[in-house]
From TrEMBL:
<protein>
    <submittedName>
        <fullName>Meiosis/spermiosis associated 1</fullName>
    </submittedName>
</protein>
<dbReference type="InterPro" id="IPR020186">
    <property type="entry name" value="Meiosis-expressed_gene_1"/>
</dbReference>
<comment type="similarity">
    <text>Belongs to the MEIG1 family.</text>
</comment>
<dbReference type="Pfam" id="PF15163">
    <property type="entry name" value="Meiosis_expr"/>
</dbReference>
<dbReference type="GO" id="GO:0005634">
    <property type="term" value="C:nucleus"/>
</dbReference>
<comment type="function">
    <text>Essential for spermiogenesis.</text>
</comment>
Length: 95
């Protein structure tokens, strides 16, 4: 069981700290997608939506589709969507 799985099992999922992204990466791209859909990260999404897997693009590994808390869906492209001017808005949580 990974650390993320252990955190996901805890009903009170609370991050210990948060920093802001400075440079774009694949990880930052996926966090951007979770945060535009209204979640902190994959851990919170899996906990709230009670899902084991997040649908991803096989080519890039980026998140493909997320369900918001109001049950509408966000669909994302295969390629990068987080522009350089948006990177500083992405929050990276530590548990």
């Amino acid at each position: 069981m990974s650390d993320q799985d252990a955190v996901a099992l805890n009903s009170e999922v609370k991050p210990k700290s948060m920093i802001r992204a400075k440079l774009w990466s694949d990880e930052i791209e996926n966090l951007y997608r979770f945060q535009t859909a209204g979640y902190r990260d994959e851990v919170e999404y899996k906990h709230v939506k009670q899902v084991d897997l997040v649908e991803r693009w096989p080519e890039s590994g980026f998140v493909k589709k997320l369900q918001r808390k109001d049950n509408t869906f966000y669909y994302y492209n295969k390629l990068r969507e987080c522009d350089d001017k948006e990177v500083h808005k992405v929050k990276i949580y530590a548990y």
